[in-house]
Design a protein that fits this description.
Layout (H helix, E strand, L loop, with lengths): L1 H32 L8 H29 L9
């Protein structure tokens, strides 16, 4: 019984260590993707990333609207 408890504890520790390692990898990747976030604490990084995502979405909407506005009506031929 004592061995079973010890085994469960070891398994929990391993799972927790793996989860911490995974989160660390994800935070490093986010730091690489978000401009100006290289040395930011994780809490500010998440806020910065959320703002950056909102900014990118707004840009995509603007570009879609521009593309629709500039689109040539009728069949398109490039010959």
């Amino acid at each position: 019984m004592v061995e079973a408890v010890a085994r469960r504890r070891r398994r929990r520790r391993r799972r927790r260590a793996a989860a911490v390692q995974l989160v660390g990898r994800k935070v490093r990747e986010l730091r690489r993707l978000v401009p100006g976030a290289a040395e930011m604490p994780a809490d500010r990084l998440l806020l910065r990333a959320a703002g950056y995502i909102a900014q990118l979405r707004a840009r995509v909407e603007l570009l879609r609207a521009l593309a629709e506005f500039c689109a040539v009506p009728g069949p398109h031929r490039l010959t």
